[in-house]
Prior knowledge:
Layout: E1 2-6, H1 10-22, E2 26-30, H2 33-42, E3 47-51, H3 59-68, E4 75-79, H4 84-92, E5 97-100, H5 105-123, E6 127-130, E7 133-136, E8 142-144, E9 147-149, H6 153-164, H7 172-180, H8 190-202, E10 211-214, E11 218-221
Parallel strand pairs: 1-2, 1-3, 3-4, 4-5
Antiparallel strand pairs: 6-7, 7-8, 8-9, 10-11
Amino acid sequence: MRILLIEDDPDVADYIKKGLIQENHIVEHFIDGKEGLISATTETYDVMIIDRMLPHVEGLTIVRTLRASSILTPILILSALTDVNQRVEGLQSGANDYLIKPFAFSELLARITILAQSQIQQSAKTQLQVGDLTLDLLSHKVMRENQEINVQTTEYRLLEYLMRNKNQVLSRVMLFEHVWDYHFDPKTNVIDVHMSRLRKKVDKPFKTVLIHTVRGAGYVIKDS
């Protein structure tokens, strides 16, 4: 899953990020409510985890703004506020769930997994598809021409990001920050290595090439 985390407490944020990354999820983290809101309205996520008390724009304002903009991504509110009326207010703002701090990571993971699965079931979209290539978001199975393609974890994340943004050129910086979840190092060849491995599995055995290099710009996956 691709998850947006808006949390200004560095210890809590680090705790959540490490756990989610170990579970093979992609995490976009912001400490500022205003920056987090901009990302929430311009990027696509499977789940959003939003702290209630944030600098510049507080959590419930973010939730209300997203819902007013018809952005229906599942949202889990984090808060140290334990009063029942405060929890009700959080849910009435448009959040799907409300988790009180401190919390166990296992509970957080269970809650966002349920939210994501519910969203997938509601939208009836359990697969990404480009041409005859399909990626199942629940089983993580990759298929092409009725053949299963065995991909490693990083290859899967790279392919998922490409397919979620099909027909869009993705720069090396975008790929690095969304798939590897740390700042871009122009000297590294990690993208080239993983992209080469992925293309050998996804494209080389088949007639039609789906993953294309756009010289000087990045990569794009498209079926025409």
